[in-house]
Design goal:
The protein is built from 2 helices and 7 strands. It has helices at 43-64, 66-76; strands at residues 2-6, 9-13, 83-87, 93-101, 107-110, 116-119, 123-126. The two termini are 18 Å apart.
Length: 128
């Protein structure tokens, strides 16, 4: 998933493996596809359902505020409290523990020196 903030918009990019997944030796993380789980869904069906769910959450954000969406995301998030590496566009790298999201949606990184840093943009890698 890729999120880019371009106020007043947020651009969301998502990839879903529907029919095939990258070979195990080519992927950084283990992956699968919907077909391998027995799903007969096609790209149109997946896209329509994704749009439907995304619009429902967008309405909830608009009507109830970001706090509700943030909490629902945290309730379902994997990796909270786990080690992560963040790589920035300028080649800097930070390591620490993923401690959640702040009120603005920034990833919170607890660094080894005891600081908590908000991360607004970067590639996040979970320990394999």
């Amino acid at each position: 998933m890729l999120l880019e903030n371009h106020p007043p918009l947020v651009i969301l990019g998502v990839g879903v493996n529907i029919v095939a997944a990258p070979p195990a030796d080519a992927a950084q993380y283990q992956s699968t596809c919907l077909a391998a789980t027995g799903s007969a869904a096609d790209a149109n069906t997946v896209s329509a359902k994704f749009r439907e769910a995304l619009l429902a959450w967008h309405e909830r954000w608009r009507d109830e505020g970001f706090t509700v969406v943030r909490q629902a995301w945290l309730d379902h998030a994997s990796g909270v409290g786990e080690p992560v590496t963040v790589r920035f566009a300028d080649a800097r790298v930070l390591e620490g523990r993923f401690s959640g999201l702040d009120a603005t949606g920034a990833l919170l990184l607890d660094t080894p020196d005891g600081n908590r840093r908000p991360i607004f943009a970067g590639d996040v890698f979970f320990a394999a």
